[in-house]
Specification:
Helix content is 32%, strand content 23%. The protein has helices spanning 55-62, 86-92, 102-105, 112-122, 128-141, 158-170, 188-205, 216-222, 240-245, 250-257, 298-302, 319-323, and strands at 5-20, 23-39, 44-48, 70-75, 78-79, 95-98, 176-180, 208-212, 225-230, 233-238, 308-309, 315-316. The strands form two sheets. An eight-stranded mixed sheet has the order 6-7-8-3-9-10-12-11, sandwiched between helices. It binds adenosine-5'-triphosphate and magnesium ion.
Length: 336
């Protein structure tokens, strides 16, 4: 069966100007650099990685909100255009986005029900009375009491606002929701409610999620597959049970080891990566992780490793791991 979403060798490079003495020089920033993944209907792919690794850029490329430098995105087998033509508008009805900051995503001047109705109005579906009934039923099912429907965004709590954003994203019954840090702006107890709600919605509506977060606990809870990004590239992809119990790439090992030990029982010590992430504007050839990897050897400095399947469900981009049989992957030295 064709996956709902296929991302093939996708890249976004920016031409930037860097101050240099009294003038400037030109450089290329590889925000996303040749990533590939797929997502099946009704499934969740978690995308994790530190700030600036290219998660939001990936989300925007998937939705055709910006032009890719290279590669393509297929949604339901159809190429997603980056020009806002009729094909794009048609596809966008079935691909929606949920942003981190619900207040920023809503219009402060409009009652929230008007904003939930907006996509139906834009896409001219059915009649206004039917629209209203649909919006009210959806908002009620997402836990928004009737008394909240005609309020303005600033009159709601953060959790209520994110439910409004979700209602607006779901009103056209999309098959893909791209969620960019959907709970990061909420406090912990509200985060749990919204996560549960997203899971219920997925069960009821069969919607797939590309779920972006830097919170590994949340990603572990919601994902069927997790992709780990580092400086614009996917360095490992695996089901969460495997990734969190036996991370293989040295960068994934460091990320997982940073999860509090109560939760992460198997990893006793925290792996402290050496050095800062390299400047994305002056990357050397070879592996993107080479400067912080204690196992880097000549080959890692010369050749960029390709994301390679180790099993049917698991892929890693590491020269050292490609050599090693599974189960012998204690690559990174630990230090407390
Ligand atoms: N318009 C732009 N011009 C130049 N560089 C950009 C532009 N937009 C983003 N970048 C750079 O691209 C890289 C990836 O940015 P992106 O927003 O995708 O990161 P992110 O993983 O979403 O980070 P965060 O977790 O902080 O949201 C960053 O180095 C960023 O500075
Ligand atoms: Mg981001």
């Amino acid at each position: 069966m064709t996956p709902l979403l296929q991302v093939q060798n996708l890249a976004k490079h920016y031409a930037v100007r860097i101050p240099d003495g009294l003038g400037h020089r030109r450089a290329t920033l590889r925000a996303v650099d040749g990533i590939s993944f797929s997502l099946s209907a009704g499934q969740t792919l978690g995308l994790v990685g530190e700030s600036g690794c290219g998660k939001t850029t990936t989300a925007r490329l998937v939705l055709g909100l910006m032009q890719a430098t290279q590669g393509r995105v297929l949604f339901e087998g159809q190429s997603v255009p980056s020009t806002r033509d009729a094909t794009w508008r048609d596809l966008r009805q079935r691909m929606q986005m949920v942003y981190q900051n619900p207040l920023g995503a809503l219009d402060r001047r409009l009652p929230v029900i008007t904003q939930v109705l907006e996509p139906l109005r834009i896409h001219h579906r059915s009649d206004p009375l039917e629209h209203m009934e649909q919006a009210q039923a959806l908002m009620a099912s997402l836990g928004l009491a009737k008394s909240l429907w005609s309020r303005y965004p600033h009159e709601l709590s953060g959790g209520q606002r994110q439910r409004v954003v979700l209602s607006r994203a779901l009103i056209l019954k999309p098959s893909l929701l791209v969620c960019d840090e959907p709970v990061s702006a909420l406090d912990v107890s509200i985060q749990a409610q919204v996560i549960n709600l997203l899971q219920d919605v997925q069960e009821l509506m069969g919607v797939a999620y590309l779920f972006i977060s830097h919170d590994l606990k949340v990603v572990r809870q919601v994902s069927d597959q997790v992709a780990v990004m580092y400086l614009g590239q996917i360095v490992e992809q695996a089901p969460p049970a495997q990734l969190f119990s036996e991370p293989l790439h040295p960068y994934s090992q460091a990320l997982v080891s940073a999860i509090p030990s109560l939760w992460n029982r198997q990893q006793k010590t925290k792996i402290v990566l050496q050095g800062e992430p390299p400047n994305p504007l002056s990357l050397q050839s070879g592996c993107v992780f080479q400067q912080r990897c204690p196992y880097a050897e000549d080959r890692c400095r010369e050749q960029s490793p390709i994301l390679t399947p180790l099993t049917s469900e698991r892929q890693v981009a590491c020269h050292m791991l490609a050599q090693k049989p599974q189960g012998q992957n204690t690559l990174v030295e630990s230090c407390s």
